[in-house]
Structures are given as C-alpha cells and as structure tokens.
Amino acid sequence: MTPDLLDEGAQRLERSRAAQAARSGNTESGGRAAGFSRLVTSPEVDITHGRILYLEDVSVSFDGFKAINKLSLDIAPGELRCIIGPNGAGKTTMMDIITGKTRPDAGQVFFGSTIDLLRYRESEIAQLGIGRKFQKPTVFEQLTVFENLELALKTDKGVQASMFFRLDSAQSDRLAALLHTIHLAESVGRLAGTLSHGQKQWLEIGMLLMQDPKLLLLDEPVAGMTDEETERTAELFLSLKGQHSLMVVEHDMSFIRTISEIVTVLCDGAVLAQGTLDQVQADERVIEVYLGR
Ligand code: ADP
Ligand code: MG
C-alpha cells in the first residue's frame, strides 16, 4: 500500500470512529440506528390494492390514557399525505407505532396489503423500506455533507469494512443526483456542523433517501426553518411524491397548503376529519378543536 493510501485509510478509520461515537451518543431512540440497517432480503410490498400503508382500529394506552383510540387510516402509493392536529393528538405516537417503536394494544398495521408491521421490530421495519425523520436534525456534524450521505449506505459492517467502503458507480450517481434534490450540491465538502438548521434537515432527509425508502414519515420537518427554507422544502417534498409515499406531520398551514392534497386531522388519537385543506378548515369540529373547547 502506498503511504497515500495508508494515510487515506487512517483518515477513514478516524472518521468512522467519530461517526460511531456520534451514533452511540445519539440518545433519540430508534430512527437513526434503525435507519442505518442494511437492506436485507425483505418481502415485496404488495400495492395491488392501492394502499402502501393501512391502519385499522389501532389503540394504545399509556397508564390508562388512550393516546391512540381506534385509529383507522390508509395511504395510497406515491401519495403525499399531510397530518395536522392539536398538540397531544397522537401524531408522533402514530409514527412510533408505524415504525415499531411503540406496540399498539389493539388493531392492525399493514405495509402494503401483506406485510403485517406488528410482526417486525423497529430495525426490521426500517429495512423493509419505511424511513423516519424525527423533528430534530441528527446529522454527524464533524463529517462533511458527502460523508454523511455516504455513511447512510454503510451498515454495521464494522470498522474494518467501513474503512474500505467505496460507493459503486450506481451509488455515486444516485448520491450526485440526490445532492441536487436536497439543494446541497454546492455544499458537498462542507462539514455538516457548519450548515444552517434547514440545510441540516435536508441533509438528514437525503440520508434517508440514500436508502430509497418506499414510505417516508416526517415529523414537523419545517419547524425552525426560515421562510425560504420552508419554500424549498415544499418543492423538495413535491418532487419526492410519486416515487415515494410521504406522511408529513406539520403545524405550518401555509406549508401544508402548498404541498397537500388530502389532509387528515387527528384529535384524541383518532381521525377527526379528512379532505382538502379548505374542506377540513371549514369543518365545525376542526374549528372547535383548534379554537379550544
Ligand atoms: P402529538 O405528536 O400529536 O403532539 P403525541 O403522540 O406526542 O401527540 O402524544 C399523544 C398523547 O400521548 C399525549 O397526551 C402524550 O402526553 C401521550 N404520550 C405519548 N407518548 C407517551 C409515553 N411514552 N408515555 C406516556 N404518555 C405518552
Ligand atoms: Mg408530536
């Protein structure tokens, strides 16, 4: 091995260690660790019935309090579904159930029409093709944008394998295209820690997209973004729908107005109303919960 290669290897090892340390320091359970799992042989998602996600009569209680109460909902392949609802409505808990972080007490949760998600663990659900974006960005700040995206393809292959990990040409092409999609092509060599809040959010979405999830769950993705970042995020989501199915929880109504087709309003752990944003905003029951009872 030439000194150059050795040097590069040593640098890779150091970055890999730093990433591993960052990973273990990440206390938010699930998402990140699950997201890095390797895509193993997974059953095909059967969308012949026109549904990528299907929840029926799902309930979960915490100390007797029904956070989710007979929730039924389905999402079509390629759909961009918006979920709104007051604080405590159960939006995050619903995502916890879909991704296997929380087990419901009752009900059915299917990915396509044949994959019973309740039979899988959180890490396996990520491998099946369900990606989740938590509210807070969790990128590796001491790594570059490129390295963060590259890392999203690496798995628990161990330090040795990670050191010599190389993108194949298809992966390189995908990464290059993705950089444009997430508006970070010009920042590819920057350390993630120096990015703005909005750029970090895009980077994390990019890391999820590197794994080509069929379904993406995004919890309050534009919270804390500037108006311009919010607009660009709307463009990003609109460009993703069709290829991916998306479930987006947000409070920002102008953002919802830009991206939404069907909006589902959750309240007290169940669907209160569903329709276009205009339809649900005109619904008396929705007005009542938003104005406070
Ligand atoms: P939303 O995301 O719509 O604001 P959440 O899903 O976070 O709502 O919470 C729904 C309700 O369930 C809230 O009342 C919350 O306090 C409660 N809850 C959520 N997770 C837990 C938990 N692990 N233990 C106890 N209560 C919880
Ligand atoms: Mg929430």
Helix and strand content put the structural class at alpha/beta
**Backbone shape:** globular
Number of strands: 10
Instruction: Report strand order across the widest sheet.
Output: 6-7-8-3-9-10
The amount of helix comes to 25-40%
Q: How far apart are the termini?
A: 72 Å
pLDDT averaged residue by residue: 86
CATH architecture: 3-Layer(aba) Sandwich
The amount of beta strand, in percent, is 15-25%
Helix count equals 12
- Write down the domain tally: 1
Largest sheet: 6 strands, mixed
Secondary-structure topology with pairs:
Blueprint: H1 3-25, H2 31-35, E1 53-62, E2 65-75, E3 80-84, H3 91-98, E4 106-111, E5 115-116, H4 122-128, E6 130-133, H5 145-151, H6 158-163, H7 169-181, H8 197-209, E7 215-219, H9 227-240, E8 245-249, H10 253-259, E9 263-267, E10 270-275, H11 277-281, H12 284-291
Parallel strand pairs: 3-8, 3-9, 6-7, 7-8
Antiparallel strand pairs: 1-2, 1-4, 4-5, 9-10
Helix pairs in contact: 5-8
The protein binds adenosine-5'-diphosphate and magnesium ion.
What does it look like?
The chain is α/β, with parallel strands linked by helices. It has one domain: P-loop containing nucleotide triphosphate hydrolases (Rossmann fold, 3-Layer(aba) Sandwich). The strands form 2 sheets. Strands 6-7-8-3-9-10 form a 6-stranded mixed β-sheet, with helices on both faces. Bound molecules: adenosine-5'-diphosphate and magnesium ion. The site of adenosine-5'-diphosphate has 10 residues, from helix 3.
Features:
Rossmann fold, 10 strands, globular, 12 helices, binds magnesium ion, binds adenosine-5'-diphosphate, 293 residues, 4-stranded antiparallel β-sheet, 6-stranded mixed β-sheet, alpha/beta, 40% helix
